[in-house]
Specification:
Length: about 220
């Protein structure tokens, strides 16, 4: 089943009509979030629903915003940030890592958080904190940490029916409040602007920055993602 979404990405960039699955996980990611900027330790993406001309730029903006959200998620906290048709699901652990899932807005939040718990438990059982304690650990540094199961989970959980029963998930999450934010901007610190994030980010190529600038000129209300 597909639904026609009017894509705008969480920044003024460009708009695009795309056919996107009604229930979709676009990204599942584990980051070292006790440093700034946060560093990706491992990530899997499914961007097949995006045009091949814009796929790389969407992926770069997802990475940038995932880092931003993870840096602003306290240990033990869970939060969901809605942005147009998408939701960023975040869960941070006391070990200095956070999990991020970007899904379509209709994807069940409880299932997303069940998956976050699962992938963080599995990742930490494979990689003790000593393996990623260095600021250079991860993508962009010494390289991604091995976690083959992440790709399998991304594929399996495209169908939320593969999750454990919602009642079981609810019991597991009852003691943890999931804080809901309506936009990416609402998690930024006072005085922070998305423009500043774009300027400072090392995750964006020249082409993505050019898209951003063009969209600002064409339509300031447009949102990337």
């Amino acid at each position: 089943m597909v639904k026609l979404f009017y894509i705008g990405v969480t920044l003024p960039i460009y708009r695009n009509y795309l056919l996107v699955s009604l229930l979709t996980i676009l990204l599942t990611q584990i980051l070292k979030n006790d440093i700034q900027p946060a560093r990706e330790l491992c990530v899997e993406k499914d961007l097949s629903s995006f045009s091949r001309f814009t796929r790389d730029s969407y992926g770069e903006f997802m990475t940038m915003f995932s880092k931003t959200v993870s840096e602003r998620t306290r240990p033990g906290a869970r939060q969901d940030i809605e942005e147009k048709e998408y939701t960023f699901h975040a869960y941070a652990r006391s070990e200095g890592v956070a999990g991020i899932i970007i899904s379509s807005h209709d994807y069940p939040a409880l299932v997303a958080h069940q998956l976050l718990s699962k992938v963080l438990d599995e990742f930490l059982s494979r990689h003790p904190r000593s393996e990623f304690s260095s600021p250079s650990a991860g993508i962009g540094g010494t390289g991604p940490l091995s976690y083959p199961g992440l790709k399998e989970h991304l594929a399996k959980f495209q169908d939320p029916g593969q999750a454990d029963s919602i009642m079981k998930v609810q019991r597991e999450l009852d003691e943890t409040k999931i804080v809901l934010h309506k936009t990416i901007e609402s998690v930024l610190e006072r005085g922070e602007k998305i423009d500043n994030l774009v300027q400072k980010s090392n995750d964006l190529s020249g082409q993505s920055r050019m898209f951003y600038k063009q969209a600002q000129k064409q339509n300031s209300c447009c949102i990337v993602m």
